[in-house]
């Protein structure tokens, strides 16, 4: 595995790979790698000749300074994990390399997609995400880029960005990976105590309650109202949102539409740790 910190050196490597007509797959991450990230690397290895992985904790996408400063950093373990998983090129720039002192980013307006749910509760979040993904895509010049459905709204935003600005890049969404107890894997999970973790499992329980109810034929509105009532009353957990959405537009999905796929989405903070989760629902 080749490790590079500078965009110029990355560009040199990419030119070398392209000159051999190799298909490049790219997996952008913020490090503290876990099995969710590994699943993206595995998908990239299946469909591309070489895999580029980036580890960069992007300051412009954090709306809470303490979340940025306490974001877990495990670089040595990440290098070992990436090597084991078959990454060819590991890109680990620092903030100066990516932003050159200019941390102001442009506002992004994809309508509801960037202004609802994560966009509403984390002001400026998608501005930062789009800014860094643009920079990374320009540097890596990949054929395919792999993103997790764990960050479902981010995946939709990136698909829209690629359609507008990187039409040659295929964006591949990969399934959400859970721990054995059902908790969606996240780098932030290390901040949860044993009790926090038990509370955090409620997120998965509620979205699956929605799925089961709706797929068994109950109306979206009634099921949502009943689960929302439990979620809003839960102790030691601050619910931000819980809803059923169209996964492409993030418009709320209600009864009466065509039979199609929707997603239950949830965000909540447990003892100051913000968590998100989602699951697919077949709506009839
Ligand atoms: P992060 O390092 O959290 O920014 O995530 C980097 C990429 O890994 C994003 O595309 C995430 O959606 C994806 N990812 C994070 N957690 C999971 C998970 N539990 N399952 C699948 N993909 C994930």
Strand content bin: 15-25%
Helical percentage: 40-55%
What's the total number of strands?
9
Distance between the termini: 48 Å
> Average pLDDT, to the nearest integer?
97
Kindly report the name of the CATH homologous superfamily of the largest domain. Answer: HUPs
What is the N-to-C succession of helices and strands? EHEHEHHEHHHHEHEHHEEE
CATH class of the largest domain: Alpha Beta
CATH architectural arrangement of the largest domain: 3-Layer(aba) Sandwich
Q: Number of DSSP helices?
A: 11
What compounds sit in this structure?
adenosine monophosphate
Principal-axis shape: globular
Describe the protein's architecture and organization.
The chain is of the alpha/beta class and 284 residues long. The protein has two domains: 2-174, HUPs (Rossmann fold); 189-277, 2-Layer Sandwich (Pantoate--beta-alanine Ligase, Chain: A,domain 2), CATH 3.30.1300. It contains eleven helices and nine strands. A hairpin with a 2-residue loop joins strand 8 (260-270) and strand 9. Helix 8 packs across helix 9 and helix 10 (194-215) packs antiparallel against helix 11 (220-233). The longest helix has 22 residues, at 194-215. The radius of gyration is 19 Å and the shape is globular. The mean pLDDT is 97. It binds adenosine monophosphate. Adenosine monophosphate binds at residues 29-30, 36-37, 39-40, 147-148, 150-151, 174, 176-177, 184-187.
């Amino acid at each position: 595995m080749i490790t590079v910190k500078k965009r110029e050196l990355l560009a040199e490597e990419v030119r070398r790979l392209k000159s051999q007509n190799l298909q490049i797959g790219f997996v952008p991450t913020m490090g503290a790698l876990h099995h969710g990230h590994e699943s993206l690397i595995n998908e990239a290895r299946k469909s591309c000749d070489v895999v580029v992985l980036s580890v960069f904790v992007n300051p412009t996408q954090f709306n809470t300074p303490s979340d940025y400063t306490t974001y877990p950093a495990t670089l040595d373990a990440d290098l070992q994990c990436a090597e084991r998983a078959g990454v060819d090129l590991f890109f680990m720039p620092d903030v100066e390399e990516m932003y050159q002192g200019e941390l102001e980013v442009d506002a992004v307006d994809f309508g509801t997609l960037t202004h609802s749910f994560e966009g509403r509760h984390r002001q400026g979040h998608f501005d930062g995400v789009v800014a860094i993904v643009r920079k990374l895509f320009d540097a890596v010049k990949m054929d395919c880029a792999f993103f997790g459905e764990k960050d479902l709204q981010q995946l939709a935003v990136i698909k829209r960005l690629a359609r507008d600005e990187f039409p040659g890049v295929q964006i591949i969404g990969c399934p959400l990976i859970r721990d054995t107890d059902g908790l969606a894997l996240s780098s932030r999970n290390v901040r949860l105590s044993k009790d926090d973790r038990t509370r955090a499992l409620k997120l998965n329980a509620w979205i699956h309650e929605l799925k089961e109810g709706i797929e068994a034929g109950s109306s979206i509105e009634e099921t949502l109202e009943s689960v929302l009532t439990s979620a809003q009353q839960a102790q030691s957990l601050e619910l931000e949102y819980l809803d059923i959405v169209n996964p492409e537009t993030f418009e709320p999905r209600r009864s009466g539409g065509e039979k199609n796929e929707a997603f239950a989405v949830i965000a909540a903070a447990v003892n100051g740790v913000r968590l998100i989760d989602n699951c697919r629902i077949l709506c009839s």
